[in-house]
Amino acid sequence: MGAQIWCGGGVRQTQVMAETARHPAFWKAVETIHDVVYFADDAKVRYGELGLKGYWRGYFASRAGALGTPGAEVVTASFHGFAPAMVARAVPEVWTLADRDAVLAERVAIARDALAPAIEQSGQDVGALADSLSIAVRDLDMAGKPLAAAHRAQPVPDDPVGRLWHGATVFREYRGDSHVAVLTAAGLGGCAANALQVATGRAAAAQQGFRGWTDEQWAAANESLREWGWVGDDGTATDLGRSARDRLEDATDRACDAGIGLTTRARMVTLAEPLLTLARAVADSGAVPFPNPTGGARP
Q1: How many other CB atoms are found less than 10 A from the CB of residue 67?
Q2: Which of 221, 215, 222, 211 is closest to 82 using CA atoms?
Q3: Which end of the chain is more exposed for a tag (fewer CB within 10 A), N or C?
Q4: What is the largest CA-CA distance in the chain?
């Protein structure tokens, strides 16, 4: 339950607003809107034209570029779920292959193009949504949230679609940073966190390869989960494991709430339904497939 703050309509109003802001609809929506850059059919080609051959060079450079030109250890730590060896195959080489600013600009351009069909289909007022999201992200407390802070510090695009994607991205990375803090506090490293996703059915078995973990690393992670009683001998999550995974999501929501003021929560409540409508149009357009390696649920 969110903090009890006396103001206006009193404790009950504040509690309702906190719970509504914590509802998965808003987070599912911003996740889906952000994720178009990972699944755009031409993303690999467009990053390749900048000098980043292969999908993963484009991925790591475009997402980590907000941090500057970080080395592999910083990227591994910030992203959490990727095997260090996989990150090291791309970083820091990507910074010698392509101009960072050009990569970041292309990322926003990819987002614009991928979102355009869904925006037309949804009928949402993108300008109004973008303006409201831009205001909301200004008041987020970024303590302990490096990726979200780095993305918020990027220039805000002038066009409504670009601003919309930028705001959704800041919120998406904000929750992601909070989730990493919760996972590490629970003793879950990147491999174990992904293995638990697979065991609970939140990700496909191919997740191991998508994140670069070796068979030995994957087996060791599953053994740790078995020792905790979270995974059974058949490799699927136990009732205890599923309950633990749900509690990790609840803890992530609480960590997010800690840095979100009452005014911003109220704005999130207002934004949730129109953003969800747009996110569903994104999913219907095929711009983001479900299920997918990000682990996001269909809005």
Answers
A1: 17
A2: 211
A3: N
A4: 57
